[in-house]
Amino acid sequence: MKTAFIPKLTISVFAMLALLIPAAGQIYAQGMGNQTKPTMGGGQSGPPQGQDTQQQPMQKPTGQGEEAIAANKVKDAKDGNSAVAAALEYAKAYPNGKARIFVVDSAADKIGSIADPAQRAMACEKLLPAFQGPNETDGLFMMLIEKKQYDDAFRLAAPRVQKVQGEVVILTQLALVGGNQIKAKNNKYQDVSFDYSKKAAEMIESGTKPAAMADTDWQIYKTKALPELYQTIGMISLTKNEDGQAQKMLQKSLSLDSNNALTYLLLGFVSDEEYQATVKKYQAASDDKEKKDLREKAVNLMSQTVDLFLHAAGLSEGNADLKSVNEQAKAALPQYYKFLHGGSDSGMQADIDKYKKAAVNP
């Protein structure tokens, strides 16, 4: 083994993050499985494929009762503005109605067909004060996110999540959107996404499922969304140069999703930063014992860094959506790998391949 330490990997955190996920919305889609939105009341489109409809607490109104008729007026409205008017009439007549989520979901579908983004946002704003129950307006925010009206979604969410407790869907979705925007070099939502990620993670960790959420959807939040939230917190911590916090959150994410290539890559860069700091201490040390101990620590950290990058490369191998993750990991590996293997990288691909079988599509 060589006696000198190799140079630092030359890539900034922001440059690295910008190359990780090629398409906007990738983490959002990954975090929520195959759904476009959770079934928080059995909206018009019904449950995701394979979901047990018996688990949905609130269904589409049935029968010819006055409340059902009022609710279905929203669904049958000719356009977005008519749907808003019908939804407001329903909210006034049935402040504790059983179809309130169905009504807002139906209105959101109609509002989504409005061509002008400003008019869509205005229609949402009209509805929000009339529906103040937790999770009642998730459909509106999901629609705004799908339309990429992120400014409007964050603007309308701010007073909503302050006033209405338990808005885990809104917090989660906007947190993941904000994290994805950072990858696109847009840090506009960084601070609020950091706050929303922590709040959403705390709600999910508490185990208190929203009353209107299907059990299968709650399971998605616990197994898919939660690791993504911790990953987002860790990623934002990296941009703030808070490596300790970043490592803690990324390790939490990894404990919930051990097949996430991006998390391994981010942890690899955190590990490399710690390695580089140890090298500096080693170079500055004059005491022989201290120098020996620091060198041993540095080599162990380098080995840890290599292992993390090997995982990232293997888990992303052959996945077009994770091409940038794969390229970053492979670019970071050779120098350290050669150092640890007598100047040769001949076994590197075989070591990468060890982790290919565990790979899963996002």
Which short descriptors sum up this protein?
362 residues, mainly alpha, Serine Threonine Protein Phosphatase 5, Tetratricopeptide repeat, 2 domains, 16 helices, disordered C terminus
Work out the count of structural domains. Answer: 2
What name does the CATH topology of the largest domain carry?
Answer: Serine Threonine Protein Phosphatase 5, Tetratricopeptide repeat
Distance between the termini: 38 Å
- Tell me the overall shape: elongated
* Cα radius of gyration in angstroms: 24 Å
Helical content class: 55-70%
Q: What's the architecture of the largest domain, going by CATH?
A: Alpha Horseshoe
Largest pleated sheet: none
Sheet/helix structural class = mainly alpha
Strand tally is 0
Low-confidence stretches: 21-58, 358-362
Would you kindly provide a written description of the structure presented here, covering whatever features stand out?
- With 362 residues, the chain is mainly alpha-helical.
- It has two domains: 129 residues, no CATH class; 213 residues, Serine Threonine Protein Phosphatase 5, Tetratricopeptide repeat, CATH 1.25.40.
- The chain contains 16 helices and no strands.
- The longest helix is centred in the last third of the chain and has 29 residues.
- The two termini are 38 Å apart.
List the helices and strands and how they pair.
Blueprint: H1 13-18, H2 26-31, H3 66-75, H4 80-93, H5 100-111, H6 117-127, H7 138-146, H8 150-163, H9 168-183, H10 190-206, H11 215-239, H12 243-256, H13 261-284, H14 288-316, H15 323-340, H16 348-353
Helix pairs in contact: 3-4, 3-5, 4-5, 4-6, 5-7, 7-9, 8-9, 9-10, 9-11, 10-11, 11-12, 12-13, 13-14, 14-15
